[in-house]
Amino acid sequence: MGGFNRILIVIAVVLATVSLAARQSKGRIADQSFIKEDLPAYGVTLVGPTDARSDELIEALVKSKPDVDRASAKRLTVFVVNGSSKTIKAISLAFVLTTPEGPKIRVDCGLIPTPDDLTDRFANDSGLGIAPGKTRGFSAIPGLRDDGISGLIYPARTNQDQRDHRRAVIEKRLSAKKIHVAIDGVLFEDGTFVGANATHLLERVSAQARAWRDLNVEAAGSVENGSPDEWPNLLAFFRAAATANTPERGSLHANSEEDYYASFKRTYAQQYASRAEHSDPSLFISWVRREAQKKELLRLTRTSN
C-alpha cells in the first residue's frame, strides 16, 4: 500500500511540474506575441513570424548566408506582399518592440524611391519597387534587408567594437515580449498614397522630388550657354548649395516638408559637387542641362484609410 501511495505522489509531482511548465510556456508565448497592421483594402499585406509562409520566405531570404541566425531573422523580420495591380514605389514600416523592462524600442524601415522615379518617367519605370505579386523583406535587425534583386544584403565587414555593439542591439530587440509592426505608408506608381503617415513618408518623398528638380533647374541656370567657360559658375553654385545651413536629416521626424526639402537639396548638392570635381566639364554641364529638362513631377494623391 505504501508503495502505491509513493507512486501516486510521484505522479502528482510530475503532473504539477508539467502543469507549471505548460503555464510558463504559455506565458512566454503570450509575452512574445506578434501584432501586425497592414493595408488589405489596398492589397498590401504583411507576413510575420507567426504566419505559415514565414519559414519558407525566411529560408529563401537567408539561404545564401549561412552565418545568419534563422531564428533571429524570423523573429524580427516581416515580408510585404504586394497583392495590388500597381508597383509599390515607396513604403514605410514601423516596428515597436516592448522590452521586458518596459521601454519600447521603435525601428523604422522601408523603401524610398530615387529622384528619377518621381519625375514624369515614374509610371514607366519599375525601378527597385515591389512589383505586383512580389514580396519584400524588412527587418528590425540592423543591416539586414532585402534588396529585391539578389535577396539578402548583410553588413559589410566591421571591426570588433561595431560587431559587439550590433550584437548587443540585436539581443535587446530579440528580448522584446511584444512586437508590433505596422505599414505606415505606401506610395504606388500612379502617385496614390495610403497609410497613417506617422513616419512622414509622404512629406519626405514630395520634398525629395522637389529638391532634386529645383537643384537641377537652378544649376542649369548657372550654365545657360552650356559652355565649358561656365564651369567655374557651376562649381561655385554646387559648393554654395552644399554648405547651406539646413536641418540635419536625423532630426527631421517631426519637422515640416520644407525642412525635408532644404535637407535633401543640400545632400544632393554635396553629391553633385563631389561628382563634378572628378568629371569632364563639358560632359558634366551637358548632363546637368539634360537633368533640368525633367521638370514634371509625379502628382501625389493621398487616399483616406
3D structure, described in words:
The protein has helices at 2-31, 54-62, 70-75, 160-174, 201-221, 231-242, 257-276, 281-291, and strands spanning 33-37, 44-47, 77-82, 88-98, 104-111, 135-139, 145-146, 152-153, 178-188, 192-194, 301-302. By secondary structure, it is of the alpha+beta class. It has 2 domains: 31-194, no CATH class; 201-302, no CATH class. Helix 6 crosses helix 7 (257-276). The chain is globular and about 65 Å long.
Task: Jot down its keywords.
six-stranded mixed sheet; 2 domains; 19% strand; 305 residues; alpha+beta
Summarize the amount of helix as a percent range.
Answer: 40-55%
Radius of gyration: 26 Å
Q: What average pLDDT do the residues reach?
A: 80
Query: What would you call the shape?
Result: globular
Strand content: 15-25%
| H/E element order | HEEHHEEEEEEHEEHHHHE
Element layout with pairings:
Blueprint: H1 2-31, E1 33-37, E2 44-47, H2 54-62, H3 70-75, E3 77-82, E4 88-98, E5 104-111, E6 135-139, E7 145-146, E8 152-153, H4 160-174, E9 178-188, E10 192-194, H5 201-221, H6 231-242, H7 257-276, H8 281-291, E11 301-302
Parallel strand pairs: 1-9, 10-11
Antiparallel strand pairs: 2-3, 3-6, 4-5, 4-9, 7-8, 9-10
Give a quick rundown of the structure.
This protein has 305 residues and is an alpha+beta fold. The chain contains 8 helices and 11 strands. Strand 7 and strand 8 (152-153) form a beta hairpin.
